[in-house]
């Protein structure tokens, strides 16, 4: 197989990270051919508003597109709307659905992740939705026009953000979570308890330890969600938010190493020097995780893209950005910086009843993460502290009279 055209940098996946890689390569002075291949229609867009302002109809498509169309022409970024079906490493080609092939001198895999499907009977009934893409969001938004009973399966970020929006729009919302607390994979038990209370106060019915065993339907449309105890939770429609799986198949089929993500090194290179990877799709070595980790955040995808653009234009440095994340639920802005393990201890700073507080996480007396609600100063300070060797004690973290800023002056 051969392909016409100059072999430059080809980016596979036109999401947050793929877009940023293209933009940063031009910022860094890359002058060669730059092709951005994505299988979603339209211009690259941001996903976070899909479960926030866009879902509330407070933002339209123009507000969520990463750049207007002219940007791509101005920066000589070729946008190709197609699904890639294979990577030919020997020939340095990406094969597209329909038979075309695109050559590359360097390939960046930014294929992201897809929704984890609900593995129970009834999962394919009409009225069962997921939320990953603009198309998913448009389908869901259409359901929010008329007051309905909504069941959300999964109390992760997407499930809870959607629940907050649906409640604000007057829907009857039930959230079913299999674990014993909300946001269990991401935050401390204290923070989980705060968000569980906050959603209950919004009027959402939250059921913990609720394993979903099946979906009930009539005439092919979902009518309820059955949990392990035999309860059927009535539903006019259902949102499934039970996590994602990374899009690794192209890489695996091409013989690249895959282990909960496409494996890359500290420079975001795969085992093939002509192929790099970034974003939700990759597992990379992180000092914050103490090993390989796959993160799902805008910061991770965008910072990895910038790091890679620097390397590919002759300024290599290991990727070492401090991980951070945010989630908006009603008037609560949760910000997390660092990576905590489930067993890390937690020190409260401020009063949760004030809806402005932080939880500082420690392992062996060393700060690993800060979870903040409506306290952006703690979060910003955490980004600076964690970039170095954070010298803060649990006692200082818990003492509101202790000036955190004094730690930076040293
Ligand atoms: C509803 C929602 C809310 C979110 N909220 C937040 C938030 O508040 N804060 C935060 O930090 N993060 C948030 N995230 C996560 C964040 O959006 C992702 O971490 C980020 O988009 C990852 O970027 P990426 O480039 O790795 O992947 P993506 O943005 O998913 O892009 C990957 C692209 O590659 C395409 N692709 C895959 N395979 C192929 C193929 N074979 N051929 C062609 N194209 C392909 C995909 O269709 C997709 O368009 C949210 C995500 C969602 C879904």
From TrEMBL:
<protein>
    <submittedName>
        <fullName>3-phenylpropionate/trans-cinnamate dioxygenase ferredoxin reductase subunit</fullName>
        <ecNumber>1.18.1.3</ecNumber>
    </submittedName>
</protein>
<keyword id="KW-0285">Flavoprotein</keyword>
<dbReference type="Pfam" id="PF07992">
    <property type="entry name" value="Pyr_redox_2"/>
</dbReference>
<keyword id="KW-0274">FAD</keyword>
<dbReference type="InterPro" id="IPR023753">
    <property type="entry name" value="FAD/NAD-binding_dom"/>
</dbReference>
<dbReference type="InterPro" id="IPR016156">
    <property type="entry name" value="FAD/NAD-linked_Rdtase_dimer_sf"/>
</dbReference>
<feature type="domain" description="FAD/NAD(P)-binding">
    <location>
        <begin position="9"/>
        <end position="305"/>
    </location>
</feature>
<feature type="domain" description="Reductase C-terminal">
    <location>
        <begin position="324"/>
        <end position="408"/>
    </location>
</feature>
<dbReference type="InterPro" id="IPR050446">
    <property type="entry name" value="FAD-oxidoreductase/Apoptosis"/>
</dbReference>
<dbReference type="Pfam" id="PF14759">
    <property type="entry name" value="Reductase_C"/>
</dbReference>
<dbReference type="GO" id="GO:0008860">
    <property type="term" value="F:ferredoxin-NAD+ reductase activity"/>
</dbReference>
<keyword id="KW-0560">Oxidoreductase</keyword>
<dbReference type="InterPro" id="IPR036188">
    <property type="entry name" value="FAD/NAD-bd_sf"/>
</dbReference>
<dbReference type="GO" id="GO:0051213">
    <property type="term" value="F:dioxygenase activity"/>
</dbReference>
<keyword id="KW-0223">Dioxygenase</keyword>
<dbReference type="InterPro" id="IPR028202">
    <property type="entry name" value="Reductase_C"/>
</dbReference>
């Amino acid at each position: 197989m051969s392909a016409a055209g100059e072999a430059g940098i080809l980016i596979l996946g036109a999401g947050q990270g793929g877009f940023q890689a293209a933009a940063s390569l031009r910022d860094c002075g890359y002058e060669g051919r730059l092709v951005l291949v994505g299988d979603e229609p339209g211009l690259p867009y941001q996903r976070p508003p899909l479960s926030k302002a866009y879902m509330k109809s407070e933002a339209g498509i123009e507000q969520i597109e990463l750049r207007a169309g002219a940007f791509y022409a101005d920066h000589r970024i070729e946008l190709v709307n197609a699904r890639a079906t294979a990577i030919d490493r020997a020939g340095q080609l990406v094969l597209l659905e329909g038979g075309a092939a695109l050559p590359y001198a360097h390939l960046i895999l930014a294929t992201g992740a897809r929704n984890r499907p609900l593995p129970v009977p009834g999962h394919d009934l009409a009225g069962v939705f997921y939320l990953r893409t603009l198309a998913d969001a448009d389908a869901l938004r259409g359901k929010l026009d008329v007051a309905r009973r909504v069941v959300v399966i999964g109390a992760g970020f997407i499930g809870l953000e959607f629940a907050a929006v649906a409640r604000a729009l007057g829907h009857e919302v039930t959230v079913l979570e299999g674990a014993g607390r909300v946001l269990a994979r991401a935050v401390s038990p204290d923070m989980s308890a705060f968000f569980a209370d906050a959603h209950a106060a919004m009027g959402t019915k939250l059921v913990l330890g609720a394993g979903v065993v099946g979906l009930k339907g009539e005439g092919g449309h979902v009518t309820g969600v059955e949990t392990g105890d035999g309860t059927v939770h009535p539903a006019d429609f259902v949102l499934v938010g039970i996590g994602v799986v990374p899009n690794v198949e192209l890489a695996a089929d091409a013989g690249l190493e895959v282990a909960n993500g496409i494996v890359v090194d500290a420079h975001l290179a795969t085992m093939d020097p002509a192929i790099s990877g970034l974003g939700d799709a990759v597992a990379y070595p992180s000092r914050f995780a103490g090993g390989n980790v796959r993160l799902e955040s805008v910061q991770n995808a965008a910072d990895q893209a910038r790091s890679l653009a620097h390397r590919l234009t002759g300024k290599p440095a290991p990727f070492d950005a401090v991980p951070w994340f945010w989630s908006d639920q009603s008037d609560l802005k949760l910000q997390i910086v660092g990576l905590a393990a489930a067993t890390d201890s937690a020190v409260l700073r401020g009063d949760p009843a004030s809806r402005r507080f932080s939880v500082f996480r420690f392992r062996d007396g060393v700060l690993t993460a800060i979870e903040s609600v409506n306290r952006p100063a703690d979060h910003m300070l955490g980004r600076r502290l964690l970039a170095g060797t954070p010298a803060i004690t649990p006692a200082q973290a818990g003492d509101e009279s202790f000036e955190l800023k004094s730690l930076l002056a040293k």
